[in-house]
Design goal:
five-stranded parallel β-sheet, globular
Length: 224
């Protein structure tokens, strides 16, 4: 099977990953979408991911299970309080309790495996290092290192069937720039979910870091 103009997009159901999917489609790729049920307290995001995948007509949407709860170490997977009502200055400094140990490495590794099976070498991930919560696995140097590793560790790359490329089209954009970009590409953000600590009905708390960054982005993108 020859490499094609297909891409694999990591899709959480949030603003950034949804915009990333829209960018990949706009660039002419036929897209596969990959989501994870990893024991996150905000598993409602997977419902959003399914809605988005259906709306965009992806070739296949795979939701795979990896239970990170036994490892713990994160407010998203463990009995740790999700930070709330932090100032934007504080949000932008340090690594918060919502950091999930090695999450992007785990997710990208599974994307790499699926991509090798599909013979799809273009992998899109909506990481961002401008308006973000200090996660070390969202930085350009991390992505570059992972891409190098990907091409050293896979049969497809070693045998010359293709070279993996990790695309990060949002990495240098602010949240408002991401929202404006997605809006221009026709993204319906009412389909997305961002909250780290929703109530049992799936409604956002409005006070966690993710909710605050989302609200700030939309307020700046569409000022009243």
């Amino acid at each position: 099977m020859q490499a094609s103009s297909h891409a694999l997009v990591l899709l959480s159901g949030g603003v950034d990953s949804t915009t990333c999917l829209a960018v990949a489609l706009d660039r002419g790729y036929g897209c596969y979408a990959l989501s994870f049920r990893y024991g996150q307290r905000h598993e409602v995001e997977l419902q959003a991911a399914a809605r988005i995948a259906k709306r965009f007509g992806v070739l296949r949407h795979l939701i795979t299970d990896i239970d990170l709860r036994p490892i713990g170490g994160s407010a998203l997977t463990d009995e740790i309080i999700v930070p709330k009502a932090r100032s934007l200055t504080v949000i932008g400094s340090g690594i918060p309790a919502t950091y999930v140990p090695a999450r992007n490495t785990i997710f990208l590794s599974i994307a790499l495996a699926w991509g090798e099976v599909l013979n799809v070498f273009e992998i899109f991930i909506g990481v961002n290092c401008t308006d973000y919560s200090g996660y070390p696995d969202c930085r350009p140097e991390y992505i570059a290192a992972f891409e190098t590793m990907a091409n050293l560790s896979t049969k497809a790359s070693v045998e010359g069937r293709g070279k993996f490329k990790i695309h990060t089209p949002l990495i240098a954009l602010s949240k408002v720039e991401i929202i404006r970009l997605g809006t221009a590409l026709g993204v319906d953000y009412t389909l997305t979910h961002s909250c780290y600590d929703p109530n049992p009905e799936g409604q956002p708390c409005g006070r966690c870091d993710s909710c605050q960054l989302r609200d700030k982005g939309f307020a700046e993108a569409f000022p009243r």
